[in-house]
Amino acid sequence: MQTVVFLPGLICDQAVWQAQVNELTRQGYECRVIDYGDADSLGRMAEIAIEQSPDKCVLIGHSMGGRVALEVARRVPDKISHLILMDTGYRRLSPDDAGKQEVSGRLTLVQTARQQGMREMGEAWMQGMVLPERLQDSQLCQSILDMIERKTVQQFEHQQTALIERPDATDVLISLKCPTLFICGDQDSWSPLERHYDMAELVTGSEVIAIERSGHMSTMEQPRAVNDALLRWLQSTLV
């Protein structure tokens, strides 16, 4: 049985992957979702993922989880049979004004979480993570806010620190030898689709699939389209 290991993004847990776990399990895959605990670096998150993964697996990372997946590939490339990176990035923090603005935004969210709580912080964070039209979808928004509220302020602060101190993974992408797929919401404003085409240019033989009418939270915004993309690609590449 093929094992699929899912890596969640910032302040996300199994809920961000639930639709994919349900469908892939029905299709006969063994599915595992990694919990990073209180890890405060992408390297430590990668070590946790390695410890909780079998000798060989399909590795799928969303957002921060995509960066964690690249750190797994840096350390144990032979463990990964297939790699799927979703709504993510690969560059280190920019040293210019854009980088300073990113740090300020991240630290402002941490301060909001400290002062007002995780759910209130999540209300602000969610505004740029899903399509504006999906903010009217109460079931989706409540699922996201419930997920955020399950994380502690300390976990949130640690994960933000990990992202601020993220390493550049250009060298990892160039070195990849396993079948690799990039998936991104076509209207993801945080990790835009164009960046995924840039990453794909660094990985020989890789593909890019755009999820229509989706923002950053593609696995929850358009679960059926994501499931279809995953299954089609896995079935065409797994031998």
Characterize the structure shown.
The chain is of the alpha/beta class and 239 residues long. The protein has 2 domains: 3-92 and 168-237, Alpha/Beta hydrolase fold, catalytic domain (Rossmann fold, 3-Layer(aba) Sandwich), CATH 3.40.50; 97-160, no CATH class. Helix content is 49%, strand content 14%. The chain has 11 helices and 6 strands. The protein has a 6-stranded parallel sheet with strand order 2-1-3-4-5-6, sandwiched between helices. Helix 1 links the parallel strand 1 (3-7) and strand 2 (30-33). Helix 4 packs antiparallel against helix 5 (118-125) and helix 4 (97-116) packs antiparallel against helix 7 (153-164). The protein is globular and about 50 Å long. It holds the Pfam family Abhydrolase_6.
Strand order of the largest sheet: 2-1-3-4-5-6
Oligomer: single chain
Order of helices and strands: EHEHEHEHHHHHEHEHH
* CATH class descriptor of the largest domain: Alpha Beta
Low-confidence stretches: none
Rg over CA atoms: 17 Å
What is the SS-derived class? alpha/beta
Give the CATH H-level superfamily of the largest domain.
Answer: Alpha/Beta hydrolase fold, catalytic domain
Largest sheet: 6 strands, parallel
Counting structural domains, the number is 2
Indicate the CATH architecture of the largest domain: 3-Layer(aba) Sandwich
Average pLDDT, to the nearest integer? 96
Q: Which shape, going by the Cα principal axes?
A: globular
* CATH topology name of the largest domain: Rossmann fold
